[in-house]
Amino acid sequence: MHLLLMTVGLLLMVEVGIAKHQVRTRRQLNNPLHQGGIRDPYGSYCERRGGCCPGRDDQCTVPYLDTICYCDLFCNRTVSDCCPDFWGHCLGIPPPTIFKSCERNGHRFHPGATHRENCNLCTCSRTGQWDCEQHVCLVEPDMIHAINRGNYGWHAGNYSQFWGMTLDEGIRYRLGTQLPSRSILSMNELKMNMDSSERLPPYFRAEEKWPGKIHEPLDQGNCAASWAFSTAAVASDRIAIQSMGHMTPQLSPQNIISCDTRNQGGCTWGRVDGAWWFLRRKGVVTQECYPFSAPQPGETPHCMMHSRPVGRGKRQATARCPSAESYQNEIYQSTPPYRLSSNEKEIMKEIMDNGPVQAIMEVHEDFFVYRSGIYRHTPVSSRKAPQYRKHGTHSVRITGWGEERDYNGQTRKYWIAANSWGRNWGEDGYFKIARGENECQIETFIIGVWGRVTMEDMHHHHRKHHHRHE
Q1: 360 — phi, psi (to 5°)?
Q2: Catalytic (active site) residue 394
Q3: What φ, ψ does residue 334 adopt, rounded to 5°?
Q4: How many Å apart are CA 304 and CA 259, to the nearest integer?
Q5: Can you say whether the dihedral through the CA atoms of 52, 56, 60, 66 is positive or negative?
């Protein structure tokens, strides 16, 4: 019996020893919290806990960041796992090493704290300095000041939707038209027989000639699909003009982005010739039927609209509208597009006779901050490092032209063009750009198109419209 008690007693002692040893091991294996300095020197931990514990007490803990810290006297060893306020609160002495804090807007921040400065993340270092990333931002305040101080004929401004983006992201997410292939660039230009005596007016706006038939600029968001937005916009205007207002669809860029997937990259890039091929062969529905779904950068939602041929080249939808608001899933088509010459007079005559045209242009870093005036690419970044000078290909819709006198009395000619960056960019979504000088390559590749509109379509639309309003 005596032997049995001794055995049990020994076993208990061993177990307690093991348990004690396990706790110690857990604590000793824990990452030392303050080997590299206290991460939150201003936090009150032991104080909030209600005090400190004498000697060693493995239960004397407080949650700290992603782990726990201790308020017992055992924590104060060379490699410390004490709470940040242990020294001050429990021992009444300053902590062993507190790194310098960083200052910002009158506030102190401990090492490791971060804040964003436009498109760069800044981290508070142990030396008390902010270390910031060195990206070039899409909106650079000094570029805006340089443009507005210089005499460039246009004004720059800050845009909240671009603030915090890098220049690389702007080029990657806000443009999205691929330069046409060599074979498309060598497409024959349509030759016009212009009478040399024909006078074109100094000012023209498609909205004034065709009121209610020219569609307002949309916003492509961070979807790099100007290839689809400019195509849908030009086709919408042309169909409305051609049908004399019997049909005024705002065609759906999303339909083209999601369904025209043959060699196209959706929200990552695309070709206008592919978009026109799709509009002619498959056709698209309206924006109301298939609304734009501003996807996350780089993602393209799958196609939700299909059509089938119904004879004479026409097509009919075989799916309901993705939007529950609309039942009008009518398919609109175009004829093959045609290319105009780069002669400004011919482009002007085409716009005045037939409606807006599509243009491809190079967008440089300063175009993003355009606010008003006649845009020309400025040399304000020419002395900066190459990463400050970037450009990409974009497509837009030219809707008119004009001219104005500058302070020297010189006439400055311009195009009026609609962008796809929303109504609060530029002049209500539009911009003016120098005309007749191929500024940013805008006159190099100009496309016109006809809608596929028959008298029967117009009659049918007129009838439907009439019934709806009875």
Answers
A1: -110, 135
A2: yes
A3: -125, 170
A4: 8
A5: positive
Alpha-carbon gap, residue 309 to 307, rounded angstroms: 7
* DSSP strands (E only) in 157-272: 189-190, 204-205
Average pLDDT for residues 404-414, to the nearest whole number?
A: 90
Of 108-122, 149-163, 227-241, 431-445, the one with minimum mean pLDDT is 108-122
Whole-angstrom distance, CA of residue 128 vs CA of residue 131? 9
- 7 has pLDDT over 50: no
Residues 252-283, buried b or exposed e (16+ Cβ, 10 A)?
bbbbbbbbbeeebbbbbbbbbbbbbbbbbebb
Other beta carbons within 10 angstroms of residue 149's beta carbon come to: 9
- Among the listed residues 107, 394, 462, 465, the single catalytic one is 394
Q: What is the mean pLDDT of residues 147-174?
A: 96
Q: How far apart are CA 339 and CA 355, in angstroms?
A: 14
Is the C-alpha dihedral spanning 127, 133, 134, 136 positive or negative? negative
Separation between Cα atoms, residue 445 and residue 339, nearest integer Å: 7
Q: Are 399 and 414 in contact (CB under 8 A)?
A: no
Domain boundaries, the chain: 86-134, 143-463
Q: What percent of the chain has pLDDT over 70?
A: 87
Per DSSP, 87 falls in state I
Could you identify the residue written with the tokens 């760069």?
Answer: 120
The active-site residue out of 419, 424, 460, 466 is 419
Q: Where are the alpha helices (DSSP H) in 151-225?
A: 167-174, 182-185, 206-209
Residue 411: half-sphere exposure toward Cβ, Cα within 13 Å: 7
Q: Tell me: the pLDDT tens digits for 108-120? A: 888 888 999 999 9
Cα 155–Cα 157–Cα 161 angle in degrees, nearest 5: 145
Q: In terms of DSSP bridges, do strands 430-434 and 189-190 run parallel, antiparallel, or are they unpaired?
A: unpaired
2 is annotated as an active-site residue: no
67/342: higher pLDDT = 342
81 vs 26: CA distance, rounded Å: 12
Q: What is the CATH number of domain 143-463?
A: 3.90.70.10
d(CA 264, CA 178): 10
